[in-house]
Amino acid sequence: MFVELQSVVMNLLFYVLALIVAVSLNAAETKTDEPEQRRILIEYNPECNATIIPQCNNTTDALNLVHVTASGSKDELHYLWSTVGAPTLLIARTPLNAELTVNWTGFISGEPRSVSLTPYIVAGAIAITNLYEFNSTNKTTVRIENSDAVRRIPLEALHWDRVHHLHEARFNTSSGLNADLLGDIGFVGLVVEAFGSRKRDPDVPHLLHSRNSSQFDIIVQNVSTRYDYPRIAVELVFTGSAISDYDTTTSGYESSKSGYESARSGSKSTDSTDPLPSYSNPRSIDDEYTPGIFRTATIRTQDHIYYRWKPVSYLHPHRSLQTSTDAHVPETGPKRTDNIPSGLTTSFAWREASLHSSVNVSHGRDDDGFYKGYLVWTVVMGYGEPLEDSLSIYILLIAGLGIGIPVVIIIVGGIYAKCVASRRRDEQLKVLVEESVDSRTNPDVN
Fold first, then answer.
1. Which of helix, strand or coil describes residue 139?
2. 118-146 mean pLDDT
3. Which residues have C-beta within 8 Å of that of residue 58, sequence separation ≥ 6?
4. Of 20, 271, 379, 411, which alpha carbon lies 20 to 30 A from 388's?
5. What global pTM score does this model have?
């Protein structure tokens, strides 16, 4: 019987493990099921004629406009990254073969509609308008709104070097030209990259990208400070459509265009109920890719453009849990602003009436030691629905084995106990039968 039981146990264990592996592989296959890749093309300072505008070829105090086209079979995503005026990152979804036109003289002078992308279906932008150094009052303040002293550093006033490494575009402030705002060796940098397929960033917080997204890092290094307990905050300004029934489908270009004309003629209202971007920061049970961080913050506009990050930043180039600090956003999320950033936000030819909203992101935690000369924060910007983190195949297998093996042990233990009890009952019954037979055949024994 025990040989048979062992065979049953081994077969049961095999089937359970096979089921766990099959479920895990199916989950992994489902997660990687994504549409075709986009083809990435990059150009720098398109249409900028150095004979007319010598600054086009400057290596320091440069004009920077990077244009990335991510082409699919049915549409394109265009990314414009610029440090003319306030550093701005713009994303637009267009039909195939949309055309970018730049009037550089107008762009430099802040002329509206001097940068155009025609036609486009939907567009949105994020401008990094200000850095703030704020004092951590009583060494415990981690949000700029609670500080007793704040210094503003307007990024539109900074001078920038020529962009290097266009595939992973690096925008760096010019050394020696920003001492009045950043200090003698102060440095602000942006590292921006667009993606044509699903990918996870190799650096923590290991953000997940789709074929419809880009990522940027904001780096604040060796900036001079005025306060005893300094922390850093970043002001972001979002720009999108102010028309509440905006159509973002591929076929919706004409209807969106006509909606704008209706709004201009007065038959469509864009009043104080204009939809602001939504903000969410839900908790999850998964910190596989960012240990110790169980939340993912997301700002979404009605144009289906999103900005996503983990609420964490890092105070050292070597990113780890030990060098991390928190990134705080007010629970109310972005608020409407009438302060339109200079640069690409002002100069872009928006088709619809635009809505501008802003938010301050404060960086700090009680035990982080304050800003000591380095801060880096990472954000993903994209179109459509952001990809959600899910458990990897390894975690699924470990979890499955962790659950499956105890279940098998319980089942096998139950079967074994039942078999042992049944065998004892059989033996007891056999003894009773034998005693009964003996008493009948030998009545005089007792």
1. helix
2. 96
3. 162
4. 20
5. 0.79
